[in-house]
Every structure is written in C-alpha cells, then in structure tokens.
C-alpha cells in the first residue's frame, strides 16, 4: 500500500489515529489527502485507493453523513468486487459496513442481507476454524446478533452472540471487553426468554 515516498501511507495512519480519537474532521482530511495521492499515483481503481474510499465511508458514517457514506461504500464495493472478487475479505469488510449503514437507516431486511453475505463470505474465505481469529467476521456476528435482537428473534441473536463470544475468547481472552459485553447481551436475552 505504499507509493514511492510513503506519504499516502503516513496520511492513512494519521487518519486512523484521528478516527480512533474521534477527531473525525481531521481523519476525513487525512483520508481525503491519502485518497488523492493514491488516485494520482496508482489510479482510482487500485485497491489502495479503494481502501481509502472505504475508510472515508466509515468516517462519513460516524459523522452522520449517510448519503456520502453510501456513495463511498458503493464505490469501494464495486471496485473491490471487480479487483478482488466478491468473496475477498476486503470486499466483505465493505459489505459489513453497508449493513451498518442500512441498520442505522432502519432498513432491516437490507442490513440482514449485507450481514449474512459478509458472514457467509468470511466463512468461505477463511474456513470455520479461522473465522474465530478474524476480528471483522466476529464484528459481523455481533452486528447480526444486534439486528436479530432488535427484531425479537432472540434465539438467532443468542446464536450469533455465542459464536462471536467464542471467537473473541479465542482471539482476545475471556476477560476482554468484547467478551464481557457479549456475556451481558446473552444474559439479557436469557432474562427476556425467562431462562
């Protein structure tokens, strides 16, 4: 992902740092500069440029700029499907992002379709053994669990939360924040079901 001088890579890393600190305006500027550099050096359809497009989509989503996020996700998804194929993990990460966008808009059927596509793709690309070591796949399981819980599909929600819990336990350990949150979600579902 590095061009001759590595400036775009540095801008990308700075953008990620700002995004992690919730300095979204600064992150947006860094990702835009990195994208311009990648497009100039490598072309707009290069996977590095498309990764920047996806990153911009995430920032726009976090800023509540849902129309801009959708445009970025559409561009990234179309480009990644063409460059990497529909089942590449980078493509699937964008598919998951689309699911989050649809979920935030209350488009639950579309959100479920995206989350299911991402999860099935991760399972095919990584295999069932390795999926528990791939954080984006585990996040997709959590997203599906949240979606199912919001729809009152408590058994399906519990299944997704349990699978994600097992994966995060393998990846990060039982005391991780992710495992603790999932244990809370599972207990909440159990109390709703009278268990």
UniProtKB/TrEMBL annotation:
Biological processes annotated in GO: microtubule-based movement
One Gene Ontology cellular component annotation held by this UniProt entry: kinesin complex
TPR repeats: 8-41, 50-83, 92-125
Keywords associated with the record: Coiled coil, Cytoplasm, Cytoskeleton, Microtubule, Motor protein, Repeat, TPR repeat
GO molecular function (one): kinesin binding
The keyword S-adenosyl-L-methionine is annotated on this UniProt entry: no
InterPro entries: Kinesin_light, TPR-like_helical_dom_sf, TPR_rpt
Pfam families xrefs: TPR_10, TPR_12
Keyword Cytoplasm found: yes
UniProt subcellular location: Cytoplasm, Cytoskeleton
Similarity comment: Belongs to the kinesin light chain family.
UniProt-recorded name of the protein: Uncharacterized protein
Source organism (scientific name): Elaphomyces granulatus
């Amino acid at each position: 992902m590095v061009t001759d001088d590595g400036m775009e890579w540095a801008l990308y890393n700075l953008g990620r740092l700002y995004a992690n600190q919730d300095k979204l305006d600064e992150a947006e500027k860094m990702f835009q500069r990195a994208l311009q550099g990648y497009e100039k050096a490598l072309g707009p359809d290069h996977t590095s440029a498309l990764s920047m497009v996806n990153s911009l989509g995430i920032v726009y989503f976090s800023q509540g700029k849902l129309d801009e996020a959708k445009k970025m996700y559409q561009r990234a998804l179309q480009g990644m499907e063409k460059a990497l194929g529909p089942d590449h993990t980078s493509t699937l990460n964008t598919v998951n992002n689309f699911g989050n966008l649809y979920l935030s808009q209350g488009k639950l059927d579309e959100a479920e379709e995206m989350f299911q596509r991402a999860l099935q793709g991760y399972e095919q690309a990584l295999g069932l053994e390795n999926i528990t070591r791939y954080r984006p796949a585990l996040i997709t399981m959590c997203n599906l669990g949240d979606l199912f819980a919001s729809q009152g599909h408590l058994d399906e929600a519990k299944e997704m939360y349990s699978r994600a819990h097992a994966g995060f336990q393998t990846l990060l350990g039982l005391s991780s924040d992710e495992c603790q949150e999932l244990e809370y979600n599972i207990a909440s579902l159990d109390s709703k079901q009278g268990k």
